[in-house]
Specification:
Elements lengths: L1 H26 L9 E9 L6 E7 L2 H17 L16 E2 L23 H10 L5 E4 L5 E6 L4 E7 L1
Antiparallel strand pairs: 1-2, 2-6, 3-4, 4-5, 5-6
């Protein structure tokens, strides 16, 4: 009985460490000056060379108001994301609507990695199509950060 208890305890400890590391990586996709609640949606569909990730956070009211008020001026002053891939850096922030070029492959994750888009992803897709939100694409277009202060949502999306 004691061996089972120790074994289960060790498994839970490993799971907890991994869960904390994943959460830290997820939050590290955003610049440190952006306050986030959540995540409220987490979808992941890994593939051999391709995959899908959709992580949506709630923006605190004060943070959403600051982003809406200061806009590009605030975003230009923020440091790059802590977990940014040095081989595929995020490009400068842009105001919405999302430009047709360069192609943002990452928007494929707005359909949901499981094939059914949660309402938060639908609201982000809407926010990307009209003024009032902001986005930053990775160099290859497979990753995107979205800040939608009107919807109080922030997302890290990856498709590719």
């Amino acid at each position: 009985m004691r061996k089972w208890t120790i074994g289960i305890g060790l498994l839970l400890a490993v799971w907890l460490v991994l869960a904390c590391a994943i959460r830290s990586w997820q939050r590290g996709q955003f610049p440190s000056g952006i306050a986030l609640f959540g995540p409220v949606v987490t979808e992941d569909a890994p593939g051999l060379r391709e995959g899908c990730t959709a992580i949506v956070y709630r923006l605190p009211e004060e943070s959403a108001a600051r982003i809406a008020r200061e806009g590009m001026g605030l975003l230009a002053r923020l440091p790059p994301p802590r977990a940014e891939d040095p081989r595929n850096r995020y490009q400068p922030w842009h105001a919405t609507p999302l430009a047709p070029e360069p192609h943002a492959f990452a928007t494929g994750a707005l359909n949901g990695c499981s094939g059914r888009a949660p309402p938060e992803l639908e609201r982000l897709a809407d926010a990307l199509g009209r003024p009032g939100s902001f986005y930053a694409l990775t160099a290859n277009g497979e990753g995107i950060l979205v800040l939608a202060p009107g919807a109080r949502l922030a997302a890290h999306l990856y498709w590719g």
